[in-house]
Amino acid sequence: MQVHVSIGENHRFELREALLVYGDRQRSFVTRHQVTLRKDAPPTLEPAQPLTLGFLESLARSLGGSSTAEVLPENVLAKGDRMITWWTPVCRRQMFYENSEQKATKLNGRTFSQPPLVWRVDHGDLKIRALAENKRPAAGTTLAIAPFWNLSDDGRVCTGTMRSPNNATAASMPDWEQGFYESAFTHANVGRLTRHQGGFEGLWSELADKRNRFPLETLIRLPQTLAQLVRGERG
Q: Nearest Cα to 219, choosing from 118, 127, 120, 150?
C-alpha cells in the first residue's frame, strides 16, 4: 500500500512519521512514531520515540511554510511569524457609514482627520488602538481607544464588509489600512468612544471635510501599553 499526497507538479509528500495523542479528562501526552511503508500492506508504526524541542520547532517551521525575509519600514513596531504591529501618524482619510437606524448618515463618504494609530494583525485578526501623541510609541507607551465604530472593547475590528489581506507582512500593511477605511462603519461596539462634548457624532462632524487636526485630548486613555498589545494582553 503506497501512501502519498501530490500537490501541483513539483511536490510529492510521503507518510513518514505519526504522532499519537493519549489522554484522559485532565492530562495528555504525545508519542512520535516512524512509519514503515510496505508494498501491498498497510503502513506500520515503529516503537514510540520521545518528542524533542528540536522536532517541535522543525515541525512548526515546516507547517508554517518558508517565509521570505523583508526589509521592514520605520513604522513597524514589532514583527512575529504571523503577527505584525505598526503605527501611522495623523493623516486624513475618507470614511463610509451605513447604519440601519440612519445614524451618522451625514458623515458618510466625507474626509476626516485621523488620530495617530497602532495597528496589530495576528493570524488574520486586526486590532487598532489610538495614540495620545503623534510620535512613534515605545514599549511602555500607554494607548487609547480608537474612536471608531466596528471595534470591540479590546480593539478588535469586526471585519464585516472589509477586504482583508491573507497575510501579516510589511507589504500588506497598506492593504490592511485601505481595507479598514474602505469598509462600511455600521455600529458601535463600545459604549463610550470619545471624551468630546458632542460625543461620537459631534467629534466627527467637527472634523468632516475640514483641515482641523484631530483633537488628541478627546481620546480615552487606557492602562494598556504597546508591549501588552503586541503580546496580546489587555493591560
A: 118
pTM of the predicted model as reported, rounded to 2 decimal places: 0.74
State whether 44 and 81 are in the same domain.
Answer: no
Q: Cα dist. 210→122, 125, 174, 204, 207 in Å? A: 34, 32, 24, 10, 5
How many domains, in total, are found in the chain? 2
Domain presence at residue 71: no
Range of the domain at 131: 76-231
Contact 134, 89 (CB under 8 A): yes
Do both 120 and 49 map to the same domain? no
Q: Which tens digits make up the pLDDT trace of 82-119?
A: 899 999 999 999 999 998 778 888 999 999 999 999 99
Distance separating alpha carbons of residues 135 and 119, to the nearest angstrom: 14
Q: Which pLDDT tens digit goes with each residue over 107-158? A: 999 999 999 999 999 988 999 999 999 999 999 999 999 999 999 999 999 9
Q: Write out the H or E segment, with its range, that includes residue 97.
A: strand 96-97
pLDDT score for 67 = 62
pLDDT per residue over 172-198, tens digit each?
A: 999 999 999 999 999 888 889 999 999
Q: What is the CA radius of gyration of the chain?
A: 24
Residue 88 domain-assigned (yes or no)? yes
82 and 102 part of one domain: yes
Q: Which DSSP category does 163 fall into?
A: -
Q: What is the pLDDT of residue 11?
A: 57
